[in-house]
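Format notes (please read before filing issues)

Several people have asked whether sequences and structure tokens are stored in separate files. They are not. Every record keeps both together, in the order shown below: the sequence lines, then the token lines. Line labels are part of the format and must not be stripped during preprocessing.
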Amino acid sequence: MSVRALWIISHEKGENVSIRFSRRFATVEHRAKRLAGSSYVAVPDESTVLQLLLTELGLSDSDKSYVAVRDDCLNCPRSPALELHADGPDKGGLWPVLAISQGPLILACLPLVDAPPEPRPPLSSLLSVSQGLTLLSGLQAFLLSSGGKTDIEGLASRLAMLPSVLLQICPLGTPLDVPLLGSPASPTVPGPAGNQKQPAWKTGLHRGRAVVNVALVETVRSMQYGNRGRQDLWDVYGTVTCKCEVEGVLPNVTVTLTLPPNGSPLQDILVHPCVTSLDSSILTASSVDNYDGSAFSGPYKFPFSPPLEPFRLCSYTSQVPVPPILGLYQLKEEENQLRVSVTLKLHESVKNSFEYCEAHLPFFNRDQMGVVDVKVSSGQLDILKEKNLLVWGLGQKFPKSREVTMEGKISFSGPTPGPTDPLCIGLTAYVKLYFKVPDMTLSGCCVDQHSVQVYSSAKPRIATSRELLSKEYFLWNSTGTAPVSSGQMML
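Then the structure lines:
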């Protein structure tokens, strides 16, 4: 796998954008030209790349919610692999441009695809895509070693190190066989492992107290319609992130995931390259296949030799019978007013203890809010008239009944028009839920602190955590039209 170009971009919520670092590899570009032949598309100048990338990521033209080159229904985006068209959508484009974003940084690269441009191969078959993302993740961990927080001086010093770092881990545009990038600041010294050879990808060794942190985050998405003619959809996927500060050249760590006796088997499991061995039955369960009860149901053991930085050990999907919060949203026109009715019910299997829980009700393509006469049975209601938005803060607990309601009327008689949206016209409207439940997962999957095994000279302190997080959790107005998918929600 080789990289044609690499860019590191800084921004502040889409503003004050600049390319902080870029590198092109002429030898790789020469290979790309020979492979593509007449279909070859050259990498444009930095300003063009920057503008195209910001448009694809939705960070430019913030006043335009619809950009044809990005949002047209004919486009099939496959994030984080983007296609950039410097000469218009009808001409060839740069593909796949990989981009990841965290905090103030966007990291992007253009890997060399060692395959004919037509027909375009699926992303899952391209090793260069997974290796390119691994390279970007390692660079991201190195540059934002403060945990994603903005450290201007530290970031500047690490960016100054990048040329020498890339000479070590990506000579001539070809990354070495690395799980993740190590910190160049730590000197290479002999370790307690005797004659064990230090790999090229591990440019430093940990010194100090041994600590292993394992965090399990399950994310749930849902589209609920409150209508028998439309099938509600939801899906759950989880990620296990580790940070292992353990002495030794190649320390061995084993993390075990367990399920409750009645839990559904984990599916679509993907693991980090540092995992040294794995039972083949763990990788065979797929959400595409019909579950016949014979799938491997754990425990799931992942032995690995960790890099120095935080990394994603594995990811998975899980089929759960019901979403955590069931809801019904009804919106009706009544004498130049809107009558609003929302009912939310927390499922009995979900822990009634939230870090936060909010319901957002936006109203598009109308005048600014006038009189708002809305009551809630629990929590606090904030009215943001300038944004035509109701924010219903439900706090950290549902009431004993596990059910809350909102009822009322809203008039739109303000002096200025409110925000617009090309989809939410008329009674097409939604409620979006934001919530986090600590110490819980929908699948029941957990990492037992005592099951984490570390084979090292020093006994480490082991910390584990798990949480449930919402993402794209929508309740659509049952009395209006709504976007409907004919299949499963796509990850």
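For reference, the curators noted about this record: The first helix runs from residue 26 to 36. Residues 280 and 341 are 50 Å apart (CA to CA).
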